[in-house]
Amino acid sequence: MTSQLFWTLILIQIAMGAFDTLYHHELTERLPWRASQQYELRLHAIRNGLYAAVFVLIGWFETHGAWAVLLMTILAIEVAITLMDFVEEDLSRPLPASERINHTLLALNYGAILVLLVPVLLAWSHDATALKPAFYGIWSILTALAAAGVLVWSLRDHFAARRMQRIADAETSGRAAELAGALAERRHVLITGATGFIGKRLVAALAGAGHHVTVLARNPAKAARLRPPFRLITSLDQIAGSEPIDTIINLAGEPTAGGLWTLARRRLLLRSRLKMTRDVVRLIGRFDRKPALLISGSAIGWYGLWQDEALTEFDGGKACFTHRLCDAWERMAMRAQRHGTRVVRLRIGLVLGADGGLLSQMLTPFEFGLGGRMGHGMQWMSWIERDDLVRLIAHVMVTPSLNGAVNATAPVPVRNELFAHELGRALRRPALLPVPATLLRLTGDFAEELLLGGQQVLPDKVLGSGFEFRHETLRSALATVLARGSGDHNYRAQSLHNVMVATSRTKA
Predict the structure, then answer these.
(1) pTM of structure
(2) CA gap 113, 3 in Å, rounded
(3) DSSP string over 380-432
(4) Residue where one domain finishes, among candidates 137, 172, 207
(5) Do 138 and 262 belong together in one domain?
(6) Are 151 and 263 in a shared domain?
(7) Quick one: 167 and 234 in the same domain?
(8) 312 DSSP assignment
(9) Is residue 245 over pLDDT 80?
(10) What residues have CB less than 8 Å from 421, skipping those under 6 apart?
(11) Beta bridge partners of 63
(12) Is residue 326 pLDDT above 80, yes or no?
């Protein structure tokens, strides 16, 4: 196998495969941290292990007799696994255009390699069985490096699949329904934004607990991945005014961290929130029997940028884009009060989960030892574990005294530097590489408000109404989110003095 064309095709295959693994699987799609991709990860682990064997055999040996048959068998198995992988990807996730193109080129290039390689192996298969050492110069060295790389990623995908299985088991071990345990009576709940990171867990909890759930989803393919039973609608016009809906939970809106805040992006963020919320308020006006409650999503960005002040629902906001965005969103939701519906504006903090939100973006660099604080690291991060957020929503549904703004954050916020330290600790990796503030500021207000700025927000109202968090501390939450055991539930990242101060304040 001394053909220059053959080795050039091998080099192209290695380069495209490395790009697909690093850019798509690790960076953009974050497959090792998506519980839904366990089967795909297992396929990748097997295929990469076979690739390692192929690279060693073609780069360092001539395979004769049974060895040639073995190599052809491995190549055939790789083709079968690749076809299975294509099917799994179509069933489990929408592939970005760049990944589809890359996969097509990989398949074509692999076919060309087989056209050159298989005739040689067929000829060698008639020889006496022998594994003859061979050296093809730089090409042998290249295949050795490629074999080492794919073997490492085979092990990574194998252990990542096992890890995501543990996380999935933790989520599906009957606990989803338990999250809605506060709801003693069966209810009919309408959820917008149900296919998002928070919404899909909320649907699983409510549907699992036996409640009647109606899901509004523009994309039925995404809704098909939600845990049944639920009723799917694609427009609020499909809901008759005579339907007895008890609660509406409005979580729809373009993610603020989905791109740079250009003028067009800012308009999209505002429009996506206001239009849906306006439509929900109009729906409430059409009902013969008005829903008792509207829980409308908002964010702690309403408070704007602060320093070390402890903020509760009784504090005001400071002018910035996130404040203007959330304020307009909340004002639109408050119009539902005209119809006698209780309105709760849920100001949600950083929601912790492995398969969504800011944390999911941080996991890959931190897992590779490339994590650290952002800027000076002294900015506050007010967070909440996703299951605690679902429980808090259920608590709001059964607590009529909760009205208006309600902070959905854990009672112990932390500074960014400590957040980075605890995430590194949970992943058993160092977290010593800070991201310079000057680099982050190149993205403009996006970084200034979401990454370098922060608020120390405390859940004054829900604590006062008797809600108990399962995860008051970051260490406990990360241990659960990353399936690292129970964590130290008595650990205090910051003094609970903050909570005591907040709950004792009485502001008009």
Answers:
(1) 0.87
(2) 11
(3) EE-EEEHHHHHHHHHHHHT-TT--EEEEES-S--EEHHHHHHHHHHHHT----
(4) 172
(5) no
(6) no
(7) no
(8) -
(9) yes
(10) 431
(11) 131
(12) yes
Of the candidates 349, 231, 223, 335, the one whose C-alpha atom is nearest the C-alpha of residue 285 is 335
Instruction: Check whether residue 394 and residue 361 sit in a common domain.
Output: yes
Cβ-contact 57, 159 below 8 angstroms = no
| Residues found in the chain | 508
| Judgement on whether residues 279 and 195 belong to the same structural domain of the protein | yes
Same domain, 88 and 202: no
Give the pLDDT of residue 502.
40
pLDDT tens-digit map of 27-43: 999 999 988 899 999 99
Non-local (6+) Cβ contacts of 96 within 8 A are 24, 28, 29
| Structural domain boundaries, residue 418 | 175-504
- For tokens 């380069």, the residue is 15
Give dist(CA 40, CA 6) in Å, integer: 29
Q: Which of 145, 172, 199 is the last residue of a domain?
A: 172
State how far the alpha carbon of 184 is from the alpha carbons of 200, 246, 256, 398, in Å. Answer: 21, 14, 35, 9
Provide the domain count of the chain: 2
- Measured CA to CA, the distance from residue 414 to residue 421 in angstroms comes to 11
Q: How far apart are CA 292 and CA 213, in angstroms?
A: 16
Q: Which residue has the tokens 């060693």?
A: 56
Structure confidence at residue 492 (pLDDT)? 45
